[in-house]
Amino acid sequence: MSGFDGDSRVVPDGVQIRGLRREQGWSRRTLVARIAEASVRATGLRETITVSQLGGIEEVNEPIPYAMLCLVAAGLDRNPVELLLE
Asked: Which residues are within 8 A (CB) of 84 and not within 5 positions of it... i.e. 6 or more apart?
């Protein structure tokens, strides 16, 4: 279990996230859709982020709530802690 609660602000590794997305051949819109699909599978609720939010994450490592990082990680099938900027 991580030491973060859902509201804790974290700094994602945007370069890594972009690289993982590109390895899959996905556009930002595709990853946003994958995040929603992963959320429905996990909780039955459709949660996702916007393409604009994903752009901020990938381009400038925009600090985000840990809960949002968990959504991105689920869409990429990764552990959220792996996606933090060191």
From this structure: 10, 11, 12, 13, 69
Instruction: Tell me if residue 50 falls in helix, strand or coil.
Output: coil
In three-state secondary structure terms, 9 is: strand
In DSSP terms, 10 is beta-bridged to: 64
- CA 44, CA 17: separation in Å to the nearest integer? 25
Q: What are phi and psi of 78, to 5 degrees?
A: -130, 165
**Model's pTM, two decimal places?**
0.90
The alpha carbon of 32 is separated from its chain's Cα centroid by a whole number of angstroms, namely 9
pLDDT tens digits, residue range 54-69?
A: 999 999 999 999 999 9
